Amino acid sequence: MKAHVLLVASVAALGGLLFGYDTGVISGAVLFITKDFDLAPWWQAFTISVVLIGCIAGSAIAGTVADRIGRRWTLFAAGVVFFVGAIVSALAPNEAVLLWGRFVVGIGIGFSSVVAPLYISEVAPAESRGALVSLYQFAITVGILAAYLVDYALAAGEAWRWMLGLAVFPSLILISGMIGMPESPRYLFKVGLGARAHQELARIYDDPAAGEREERSILESLRAKSVGFEAFKQPAIRLALFIGITLAVLQQITGINTVIYYGPQIFQMAGVASAARSILAQSIVGAVNCVMTLVAIFFVDRVGRKPLLYAGLSGMFLALAALAFSFAAPHLSRSLGTIALSSMVVYVGCFAFSLGPIVWLLISEIFPLQVRGLGMSLSTLANWVGNFLVSQFFLTMVARLGLSATFGMYALLCVVTIIFVRAMVPETKQELLEQIRVRPA
Ligand code: BGC
Q: If you take atom 8 of ligand 1, which residue's CA is the nearest one?
């Protein structure tokens, strides 16, 4: 792989790092914010979830922005938004300003969650596109782990302002990095800057013949006339949208963020008494999430997207079924802490090499160029709405149905996802982006 392409993908992946850090950091910070601003439980919950409302708003508009001003400047804008949000949150004199700051951070996350994978998939050569977009997921997991560790390190000083404020450093790197990055050749072709696009393709491919093949395929795909919402009248594009949105929602409703956001609480429900041990257990989960994403980076372009999805989803199903079973079995109560930790490690580890990276990858691949920004925006929007609903109602579901039924439901949804992947999702390994077609198997 060319160093140039790896550099471009790594800078763009910083958007993922900020996504992970900013969604993960609040779990520790909120304890001290609640104390400082004397928050009632409702406001405490809202301080956590307001960022997701920002994500919904940001992802809804990001595709249109990326189609207007380009992928590169949209990601640059995301960096600026992250920076402003971090400063406002860290210096907030009261709860109202803090909420605005976190909302702004959410807009940054919404932007980068649409544009970073889109941009990476558009600058990546077909044979390493899977690995490069998975790098973005890897950055998300590094961000989440960094957030856990920062929260842990700063907890003694109750330094929530630093916890939120440290995000300015990666945002500055993203901002300055994007100034030096090239625009996506596909976007350049789309807006009629063929000569520049041609140059960019030459920097991506060692072999000029491969670059020319790609150029032909992009130009061919640009002949299709309809753009914007109009294009969704075409059955193939409607089908792509259906697949994109469904995959994005399934990524959330199989329960990943109950573990990522509420892990320490789940450990405490499993009988791990001390808060410090629960936080430690959560850091183990965070580290496994990170390391297992490497499996996707290495294998997604070799064995393909669908085999990894089947393997990962089967592991997630087994781990969730074990959790559901053990929370319902009173005779296991003494070993529940150990069972919970090992099942959650298996569950997150399997998510990390399958549903985590591959959903972002597929939704950046399945839309034709004319509607790629829009399709990606709508799918990502659905992902954030799913995330909001699951994380908002998880504790209520546990209170109403119990942990066993809740995990049992997620297990069932893993089976639904396997069936959906089998029936609807195309294998996109090694295919040129413009040659990917969705059609039911
Ligand atoms: C998901 C996030 C999740 C993260 C965990 C991402 O792919 O979209 O919702 O928190 O993975 O690593």
A: 356
CB 285 within 8 A of CB 24: no
**Structural contact between residues 139 and 284, judged by C-beta atoms closer than 8 angstroms:** no
Distance CA 70, CA 122 (A): 12
Task: Output the residue whose Cα is nearest ligand 1's atom 7.
Answer: 356
Q: Which of 120, 117, 157 is nearest to 35 (CA)?
A: 157
Q: How many angstroms separate the alpha carbon of residue 257 from the centre of ligand 1?
A: 7
Encoded tokens for 63: 């595709």
pTM for this prediction: 0.93
Pocket test for ligand 1, best of 137, 295, 350 (most atoms within 8 A of CB): 137
Tell me which of 51, 260, 353, 361 to substitute to probe ligand 1's pocket, judged by most ligand atoms within 8 Å of the beta carbon.
260
What's the gap in Å between 356 CA and the centre of ligand 1? 6
Look up residue 187 and give its two tokens: 């976007």
- How many residues are given for the chain? 441
Question: Considering only CA atoms, which of 115, 149, 150 is closest in space to residue 133?
Answer: 115
Higher pLDDT: 332 or 235? It is: 235
CB atoms under 10 Å from CB of 60, counted, come to 18
| Angle (CA) 356 359 365, round 5° | 140
Within 6 A (CB) of ligand 1 lie: 137, 140-141, 144, 251, 256-257, 260, 289, 356, 387
**CA-to-CA dists, residue 21 to 50, 82, 246, 293, angstroms:** 15, 11, 26, 16
Tell me, in angstroms, the distance from the centre of ligand 1 to residue 210's CA: 33
Residue nearest to atom 12 of ligand 1 (CA): 141
Q: What does each C-alpha distance from 3 to 117, 149, 204, 239, 357 come to in angstroms?
A: 18, 31, 9, 36, 22
Q: What is the mean pLDDT of the chain?
A: 92
In this predicted structure, the answer to whether residue 224 has a pLDDT above a threshold of 80 is: no
What is the residue-wise DSSP string for 192-245? T-HHHHHHHHHHH-SSHHHHHHHHHHHHHHTT----GGGGGGSHHHHHHHHHHH
Residue 336 pLDDT greater than 90, yes or no: no
Q: Which of 39-48, 140-149, 275-284, 362-371 has the lowest mean pLDDT?
A: 275-284
Task: Ligand 1, residue 141: give the atom nearest the CA.
Answer: 12
Residues 83-138: tens digit of each pLDDT: 999 999 999 999 999 999 999 999 999 999 999 999 999 999 888 999 999 999 99
